[in-house]
Design brief:
254 residues, transmembrane, 11 helices, 81% helix, single chain, transmembrane helix, mainly alpha
Length: 254
């Protein structure tokens, strides 16, 4: 795998993603939702300054928007990874890039990096919006690095998992349903069931790991930052291995 071939393939993947309307639409909707929520949070804090904790900062107001950014990143990653399977464009793609491992590396890298970077920028923007509305609470750089660093891990792992599921299922609808179930539905459902096994299972779902890294809370008191990161890494790697295996070994049009 030469560096030049990888650059050319990555450039082609970048063009494929950002020359279609759906990518811009998803990115725009995600930005609108994230920034709108940050405005509401900032206005609420400005209207009731007594209710703001003394040690709070603008990053605490921007932190909740990370989960909304996550769903936008997941949706964009799924759509970007499955679009050419739905249109049949994967066949000419593989004719131009017959070395499938090269396509896999470029596709996963470009989608995961661009979507997670977009999410981090939006969360950073959300914190800045809250600060502009409530300047007295401050926007400390050190806390910002910690918050955005944790958000970056969540978004990157989520994007890789979404791409892996997209490559595995080769269906936009199937990929969206799968990531929604793993990140939102199943963790909440399992955590509410009155069984020990359901509580334990909830802690190893990717959605629980994401919630813990963003908010510091999860369905179990036994969760730690290390366990949450490990959970996300395992899900991302598992999805990538299974989805990548299908791309490398399966028929492109099935």
């Amino acid at each position: 795998m030469s560096a030049r071939s990888l650059r050319c393939t990555a450039a082609a993947e970048w063009s494929r993603i950002w020359t279609v309307r759906s990518s811009w639409l998803l990115a725009g909707v995600t930005a609108l939702v994230v920034l709108s929520i940050s405005i509401l949070v900032g206005l609420e804090a400005a209207d009731d300054p007594a209710g703001v904790p003394a040690d709070a900062s603008a990053w605490d107001g921007g932190r909740p928007t990370a989960m909304f950014a996550l769903f936008g990143v997941l949706a964009l990653a799924v759509v970007a990874s499955t679009a050419d399977h739905g249109t049949g464009g994967i066949v000419p793609t593989l004719q131009w890039t017959p070395r499938r491992h090269l396509l896999l590396v470029a596709r996963v890298g470009v989608i995961a990096l661009t979507t997670s970077a977009l999410g981090v920028l939006l969360v950073a923007g959300a914190g800045s919006v809250v600060w502009s509305l409530v300047p007295e609470i401050g926007l400390p750089a050190r806390q910002g690095a910690e918050v955005l660093g944790g958000v970056a891990i969540v978004l990157a792992a989520g994007a890789v998992m979404a791409v892996g599921l997209g490559l595995l299922l080769r269906s936009t609808a199937g990929g969206l349903v799968s990531v929604s179930a793993l990140v939102l539905v199943l963790p909440m459902l399992l955590a509410q069931l009155p069984y020990g096994w359901s509580q334990e299972l909830a802690t190893v779902m990717p959605g629980s790991g994401a919630l813990f890294l963003v908010f510091g809370e999860g369905p179990s008191d036994d969760m730690t930052t290390t366990s949450a990161r490990l959970t996300l890494a395992v899900w991302a790697l598992g999805a990538l291995l299974t989805g990548g295996a299908r791309l490398l070994r399966g028929d492109a049009d099935r």
